[in-house]
Amino acid sequence: MNGISRRHFIKTTGTAGVALWLGISAKGSTRKVSNVATAKNFNPLILVESNGNITIFNTKPEMGQGTFQSMPAMIAEEFEVSLDQITIKNTSGEKEFGDRQRAGGSSSIRTTYNDMRKIGAAAKTVFITAAAAKWQVDESTCYAEDGKVIHQPSNKSLSYGELVEEASKIELPKEPRLKDPKDFKILGKVSKRPDIPLKTTGKAVFGIDVIVPDMLYATIERCPVLGGTLKSFNADDALKVAGVQKVVEAERIVGKHHFTGVAVIADSYWNALQGRKKLKIEWDTKGHESFNSKEYENNLRKLASQEGIIDKNIGAIDTIKVSSQNTIEAFYETPMIAHHTLEPMNCIAHVQGDKAEIWTSTQVPSTIVGGGVNDVPKLAGFAPENVKLHSMFIGGGFGRRLYPDYVIEALNVAKQTDKPVKVIWSREDTTTQGPFRPMTFSQLSGSFSDDGKLVAFKHKVISPSYQESVRKDFEKTKVDGTMVEGIAEQDYEIPHMKTSYVRADYHVPVAAWRSVTSSTLAFAHECFIDELAVKAGKDPFDFRMELLSKPSDTKRVFQKLRELSGWDEPLPKNKGRGVAQWKFFAGQCAQVVEVSYDPAQKTVKIDKVTAVIDLGEVVNPDNVKNQTEGAVVMALTAAIKPGITFKDGKVIESNFYDNPVLRMNEMPVVNVHILAEGGKIKGVGEPGLPPFAPALANAIFAATGKRIRKMPFDLKIS
Amino acid sequence: MITVTVNGQRHDIDADPNMPLLWAIRDILGLTGTKYGCGAAQCGACTVHLNGESIRSCCTKLSRAAGQQIVTIEGLSANNNHPLQLAWNEMNVPQCGYCQSGQLMSAAVLLRENPNPTDQDIDDAMSGNICRCGTYQRIRAAIHRAAELAKEGAKS
Ligand code: FES
Ligand code: FES
């Protein structure tokens, strides 16, 4: 947004009387509009009504990352209202709220911080001007606080609600003055998320909780061999199950992949499940029925011998002379994994003629009403203006809900009944049907000069391609930037560097998973840096600091981390510390993990994790800590728990008993420190993940001498 | 017809007696605070109390609840003021919140049976409840805090 605010004045017929909408326009020109719903180029964010109600709209779906509080907080701070004075409304992709109603890439705050403050400040200025005009006093003698304008000399005051009519006549300033951060009352302070009380009483309504009158339920049998197609089915027995009403085909589209399943529609979810068990389906699995992970991984290892496509070539790595004694090489491997949002995929769709109404938990409301590579109306055959969405609280996103495949599928079911239908994926469906985080394998080499300086570093990634899975028109001769993400961005000063990519064909849909490819590449990269430190005979922290001679964010973060983690305090025998960091599109975090090794049991225990996250600006510090603690948990799960594997074309794992996630008894102590020292604003949700696995593996090396090069790894040391 | 008392209120439910209690609570009674996460007694999102004991409602037949007392998250307290709820709010425990009904219902039984739980007691009682967002550290701290609040409450 290039951030010009404008106002809009409408009379409403409700009890609210007069209402004033304040918002942002994309182009910056101001103009009056007669109806907010049809106004083009105007994205309202604040609604003030003459009855005193103030509403702030949150355009970033809430999935636990805290946008329900943090987005309004940025506006409220400058607007001088407290969060308990306002109503917060999540938007649902409505055109008037703009096309950026999506949450992903840890971007909600980092991409809107200045604009949100600006609109809040502009709105405040308008109300102050309005009050001063009404009182016929100098504006400079007035100030705003708690949703009121106060005339300082007389102490008289008017609430924003009382000033709506006046305020609507005043132009919004283009460059309003922002508050001095030292006067902040909300931003950077301990502040409560208003969704928390809803989440301790069961009142928060997630997509799966919505009840629409007359609603039916559906469950879908999909081909257990991914890539298989539907040949035929017989629903006779299924239709005999009490409550089962209809059995229909339903297509799911995820990226370039199209799958057709068989949906059982019934009067209750339980009855639908009973019907599903009675389906007789013939699948055509040709070409995929012998696919298995072991063979595929062997293939990736073989592909490592290919040159690949060059992503970055810095310096003169192909011509510099380094000796083989001064060079080390290593190969790292990571698994494919599932997102396992605790709320499984689900969607209610109601199709009436050419119109569709949808209730769901999604990270991408704007995509569901039309736009982007996964344009739902286009893929499901609706005109975008005929699609109405209700975007609900999300029971876990982690990237999975960036993909609206489950919405398209529900629409395709709903087209075949005139009632609203709630499609619920079982945990088994969610575990076996993808999309999954792809595995990446990394081949690394590093060379020192004769005088012991790290001069050359190569990182080759071998993996399926994310972009290829998503886009039909993906250009295979080009490097998929997502798959080498972050590698060339690290601040380490290495004169000669090469990043390359070898793409492997894959028929399994793959997806962004919280912190995307950084979640696997950082493991290889930062463990290998440790191997180089060992080769150089240096302390891993010293080695890294020597690669950071110039001022940089990484250096600053490391300095803080070294102090807070007690890195330089000696450890008793059988204890070890590991350090790692990662800088990528979402932000930056560095961690030290401390472990104890029990030689009798041959087990490693994580004693504590110290994390430093670099943000530039911080909106809700306690929530940042919660997010980073959670990022460590998710990264630990990915590091030590089994991934998703295939045999005979099918995913072997099915539920939490064979695809476990971390539990309470495995929780390490996590201490999070936030750096908010100005500068570039960085994201919160993802940066805590990438550094954890390498820091843990490096700590295990320090404590046991065992170098881990493959995820998942066991805390039992063999 | 199966008669079940949920949060003190009697309901006559006309459904397959084999239907898991979870779906009866959510889809028939409309109490959606109790969640589905796995359907296999693995995640604890569906935890409710049956005659005061924690059960996984996804793996409990509706018939098992006939004539019994069920309490769901909606009935844990009148006003979001169970010591655990107070502590959860004070310590900003939830992230997405999806697991938290189940976490609170499991913790409520722990705290009733054991007003001073140790970390080990918490591990033992809470390891059946998955939080994919990873709020375990806060859940642990909040249970300790709730134990304090309960004692303060008892004194005053
Ligand atoms: S839904 Fe019952 S334990 Fe997971
Ligand atoms: S808060 Fe999201 S699963 Fe626990």
CATH class division of the largest domain in chain B:
Alpha Beta
Shape of chain B: globular
Q: Quick one: CATH class of the largest domain in chain A?
A: Alpha Beta
CATH fold-level label of the largest domain in chain A: Aldehyde Oxidoreductase, domain 4
What is the CATH topology of the largest domain in chain B? Answer: Ubiquitin-like (UB roll)
Write the layout of secondary structure elements.
The complex is a heterodimer of chains A (718) and B (156).
Chain A: E1 4-11, E2 18-25, E3 43-49, E4 54-58, H1 67-79, E5 87-90, H2 113-135, E6 142-145, E7 148-151, E8 157-159, H3 164-167, H4 196-199, E9 216-221, E10 229-234, H5 236-240, E11 244-254, E12 257-266, H6 269-277, E13 280-284, H7 293-303, E14 309-314, E15 327-333, E16 346-352, E17 355-360, H8 365-368, H9 376-380, E18 387-391, H10 405-414, E19 421-424, H11 427-432, E20 441-448, E21 454-464, H12 466-470, E22 496-504, H13 518-536, H14 540-546, H15 553-565, E23 575-584, E24 587-598, E25 603-614, H16 621-640, E26 646-647, E27 650-651, E28 669-675, H17 692-704
Parallel strand pairs in A: 4-5, 9-19, 17-18, 21-22, 25-28
Antiparallel strand pairs in A: 1-2, 2-3, 3-4, 6-7, 7-8, 9-12, 10-13, 11-12, 14-22, 15-20, 16-17, 16-19, 20-21, 23-24, 24-25, 26-27
Helix pairs in contact in A: 1-2, 13-17
Chain B: E1 2-6, E2 9-13, H1 21-28, E3 47-50, E4 53-56, E5 69-71, H2 83-90, H3 100-113, H4 119-126, H5 136-155
Parallel strand pairs in B: 1-5
Antiparallel strand pairs in B: 1-2, 3-4, 3-5
Helix pairs in contact in B: 2-5, 3-4
The structure holds FE2/S2 (inorganic) cluster (2 copies).
Structure, explained:
The complex is a heterodimer of chains A (718) and B (156). With 718 residues, chain A is an alpha+beta fold. Chain A is globular, with a radius of gyration of 28 Å. Chain A has 3 domains: 3-199, Aldehyde Oxidoreductase, domain 4 (2-Layer Sandwich); 207-287 and 345-424, Aldehyde oxidase/xanthine dehydrogenase, molybdopterin binding domain (Aldehyde Oxidoreductase, domain 4, 2-Layer Sandwich); 294-336 and 437-704, Aldehyde Oxidoreductase, domain 4, CATH 3.30.365. Residues 1-15 and 28-35 of chain A have low confidence and may be disordered. In chain A, a hairpin with a 6-residue loop joins strand 1 (4-11) and strand 2 (18-25). In chain A, helix 1 (67-79) packs parallel to helix 2 (113-135). In chain A, the strands form 7 sheets. Chain A has a 7-stranded mixed beta sheet with strand order 11-12-9-19-16-17-18. Chain A contains 17 helices and 28 strands. Helix content of chain B is 37%, strand content 13%. Chain B has a 5-stranded mixed beta sheet with strand order 2-1-5-3-4, sandwiched between helices. In chain B, helix 2 (83-90) crosses helix 5 (136-155) and helix 3 (100-113) packs across helix 4. The radius of gyration of chain B is 15 Å and the shape is globular. The chains are: A alpha+beta (718), B alpha+beta (156). Chains A and B meet through helix 4, helix 6 and helix 16 of A and helix 1, helix 2, helix 3, helix 4 and helix 5 of B. The structure holds FE2/S2 (inorganic) cluster (2 copies). One FE2/S2 (inorganic) cluster (FES) binds at residues 36-39, 41-46, 56, 58 of chain B. Residues 36-39, 41-46, 56, 58 of chain B line the site of one FE2/S2 (inorganic) cluster (FES).
